Here is the input.
Amino acid sequence: MAERRVKVGSSVGLHARPANLFCKAAGQQPAKVTIAAGDRGPVDARSILSVLGLGVSSGEEVVLTSSDDADGEASLDALAELLATDLDAVPS
Here is the structure.
């Protein structure tokens, strides 16, 4: 099982727009990824309602996990890089 720890870069945390962009990106990954924050989760990273339910704040550390050996590392790297950026500053 592979994992990445990353601090959320979006100024509003994982709310509405940033969570939507993250979940869409997770859905495009070849490996299934979960996300957890503190003692909340893990939840399916593709589920917008689950991700919003975590209530992740700006600068909070989250843990991304994948059990897929073949594609998991690349999927985690891509999603960790996305979460580290301010997704509110990314043009639509």
